[in-house]
Structure formats: structure tokens, C-alpha cells
Design goal:
The chain is mainly α. The radius of gyration is 17 Å and the shape is globular. The termini are far apart. The relative contact order is 0.23.
Length: 233
């Protein structure tokens, strides 16, 4: 599907990627809480570096490819292709908490969309997403819904990556702590990183999925046994 994002699509995308959309994103830090406690992310510069690592080498990199694969599967009416993305996206999570973060948000996102928004043609894709019960990878759910709703790939993916970074920045503002202006400076500074990630994912096509950030995965694993914590991941 080609074309620009119309006003109806923009309205939906802003709602679905908003911090107020009921997926519970505020409850997750992706292991950032452990990194802050260990002194690895002590300030705004460290938070920016963390977000760049996630988007360029970590879960954000993999998610950009999964988003592209899931969106194209729905756009091309490829049910088996979507199922393959679901399997790969679920297997990619390196820790129990990372899997929980993805699955809980995916199930909540699909439930909220199907319960409140009228999207003709979504039902068969919703059924495929739900075949795994509540273990619905968040990125695949967002991508499939965007494709079914006619939201172009590039706009949907960029918005998803923006929301991912913004959520981690929100967590960092609370954990480090930082002022809200520092948080906004960090988000503004990630524009080129997110643009490059979207370019790479949409150009790669069926290239292998994966990450290259084992330390980020280790932080996620360590958070599972952190003695005092605010976040679920």
C-alpha cells in the first residue's frame, strides 16, 4: 500500500501511540531501572545513549524489522507471513520480563483497538494475532492494525519507534531523575536515530532479524531479581 497518511489515519495513529492509550507502557523500563541503579545511566547524556543503543542495536532494531514484516504480511494478504513474524518476535525476547513487556502490551493493544475502533477488514488478522492466546507481540499487533487501517508503513513504523523511545525517556526522567525539559531534549535529539532505523528496516526486506546489544539483555535479566523496583521490566 502506498500513499500519504490522511487525516483519519493520522488521528488513529496519534491515539494508538499516545502515552494515554491503555497498554500500560508506563509500567515498563526495559531494564533501564537496573542500569540506573548500577550507575550506567546517570544523566541525560547516558539516557540518550541508552535509547540510541536500543533503537540502533537492541530491541528497537529487531522491532523495526518485525514491524516491517508484519505490516507487509497484512498488506500482501499473507497470513502465513504474519504467523512467522509472530513466532520470531516472541522468540526474540531475551528475558522473562522482556517477553512479559511485549506480550502484555500486545494483548492490551489489540483488545483496546478491537473494542473501541471500527477498522473494516481487521477481524481475520485479529484472529491470527490471537491464535497465541495472550502472547501477542506488541510490535506485531501495532503493525498489523496499522496495515489493516491503511496507515502507511513508514509513518506507522516511525511513530512506533518514537513511542518506544519516549516511554523509556519517561522512565528515565523518573528514575535518574531528570527534569521534563531534559527529557524533551533527549527525545528531540533522537530524531535522526529513529529516521535511520526506519530507513534501514524498510530497505532490508526479508533480511535476518536480530540484535547486537547483549548488555541491554543482561540489564533486563538482572532487573528480574532487583530488590527494590518501580517497574515491571
Amino acid at each position: 500500500m502506498t500513499g500519504s497518511l490522511d487525516s483519519a489515519g493520522l488521528y488513529r495513529l496519534m491515539a494508538w501511540m499516545s502515552p494515554g492509550f491503555p497498554v500500560g507502557a508506563y509500567a515498563y523500563s526495559g531494564g533501564l531501572e537496573w542500569a540506573v541503579e548500577e550507575g550506567r545511566v546517570p544523566d541525560a547524556g547516558g539516557l540518550a545513549a541508552w535509547c540510541r543503543a536500543v533503537v540502533t542495536h537492541g530491541a528497537g532494531r529487531a522491532d523495526a524489522n518485525f514491524f516491517t514484516g508484519a505490516w507487509r504480511a497484512v498488506d500482501e494478504d499473507d497470513a502465513d507471513g504474519l504467523r512467522e513474524v509472530l513466532v520470531q518476535a516472541a522468540a526474540q525476547r531475551a528475558s522473562r520480563e522482556a517477553k512479559l513487556e511485549s506480550a502484555a502490551q500486545g494483548a492490551a493493544f489489540l483488545s483496546a483497538v478491537t473494542g473501541a475502533w471500527d477498522i473494516p477488514g481487521l477481524e481475520p488478522w485479529s484472529a491470527i494475532l490471537s491464535e497465541r492466546g495472550t502472547e501477542i507481540p506488541y510490535v506485531a499487533a501495532v503493525a498489523a492494525v496499522c496495515a489493516a487501517a491503511g496507515i502507511p508503513l513508514r509513518e506507522g513504523l516511525t511513530s512506533y519507534l518514537h513511542a518506544l523511545a519516549a516511554n523509556y525517556i519517561s522512565a528515565g526522567v523518573r528514575l535518574i531523575p531528570l527534569g521534563q525539559t531534559d527529557g524533551q531534549r533527549t527525545l528531540a535529539g533522537l530524531f535522526e536515530t529513529i529516521e535511520a532505523a526506519a530507513d534501514r528496516a524498510t530497505a532490508q526486506g526479508d533480511a535476518p532479524w536480530g540484535t547486537a546489544a547483549p548488555l541491554l539483555d543482561l540489564f533486563s535479566m538482572q532487573h528480574e531479581t532487583q530488590y527494590t523496583r518501580l517497574f515491571r521490566s
